[in-house]
Amino acid sequence: MIVVFGAGIAITHILRLFIKWRGWVMQSIEHVIPKLVIAMIITSLLFSLSVLALNYLFNLGVDSSKKLSFLARLSASTVDNGLFILPWVLIYYFYHFIEKSRRQQLDTFQLEALIKELELKTIKAHINPHFIFNSLNSIRALIDENPVRARTAITELSNILRSSMQVDKAETVTFEKELNIVKDYLALENMRFEDRLQVQYEIDEDTLDQQVPPMMLQTLVENAIKHGISKHIRGGMIKIISDFKNHYHELAVQNTGSLNGGLNAEGFGLSSTQNRLGLLYGDKASFEIKQVTPSTVEARVLIPVQMN
Amino acid sequence: MRAIIIDDERLARAELRKLLQDFPEIEVVDEAANAEEGIEKIEAQNPDLIFLDIQMPGKTGFDMLSSLEKSPNVIFTTAYDEYALKAFEVNALDYLLKPVEPKRLADAIQKLHFSETREPMTNGEHINRSMLTENDQVFVKDGERCWFVKLNDIRLFESVGNYAKVFFATNKPLILKSLNALEERLDEKMFFRANRKHIVNLRMIDKIEPYFNGGLLLELKGGEKIEVSRRQTVKFKEMMSL
Question: Are residues B112 and B194 in the same domain?
Answer without folding.
Answer: no
